[in-house]
Amino acid sequence: MYKPLITDGSKKFGNNRWLSYSPKLKRDVSLFSDLEYEHWLLVESNPEIVEFCEQARVMEGFVDGKLQRSIIDMWVKYHNGKEEFLEVKYSSDLSKEKVINKIAIQKNWCDDHGFQHHVSTEENIRVNQLLLSNLKLLLKGNKQQKQVIEIDRFQIMKIMREHCPKKMLISSLIIGTQIPPNRLLLSVGKMILKGEVCSNIALQHYGKNTEVWIDA
Fold first, then answer.
1. 137 shares a domain with 119
2. CA separation for the pair 185, 71 (Å, rounded)
3. Residue 164 vs residues 172, 177, 180, 198: alpha-carbon distances, Å
4. Is the distance from CB of 191 to CB of 138 less than 8 angstroms?
5. pLDDT averaged over the chain?
6. CATH number, position 92
7. Domain residues for 206?
8. Residue 180 needs a FRET pair 20 to 30 A away by CA distance; which of 17, 148, 150, 203 works?
């Protein structure tokens, strides 16, 4: 539905620029701060979000009688059809007049057009550093293997269905499938990102002792 409005990394925009490949969108995404990058990790790995776009739309509104514009950080669409616009800001910036005006423009625009608007800060994005660390690892693995090897996926799902709804260690999957450990970790990692497999990566470092399961 949307295309990113800002993709030129040579422009001064944000603290740090990240260019990362999105398995969900099958394209590179441009992110303009460390916090935006970490927010994207959570969006990318959320199976309820089926589509998103960074720097998706210009929103307009009047501030002190002057027409001003603001580009929203992200638009997301959920599996149930709900759409939402998201702004990512460090909490220390929320008291700045420029940021206050920017958020007000966005919120008023969303209210006028029937969309929800939400501001995320490091206080909720960075609440689980272990999860973010694991997601960075899984996305790094995705670069090595962009498609799940179908025979791996078939064997993994076959064993997990047999054990459903019980949880399994990845080490047990390695034994049961006889897939080389490194390859299986990459395949399972991709399946976790796609929401095909549930895991406890919010509680434990990703590896052979990670618990995985599928919903009944």
1. no
2. 38
3. 14, 16, 23, 11
4. no
5. 91
6. 3.40.1350.10
7. 129-213
8. 203
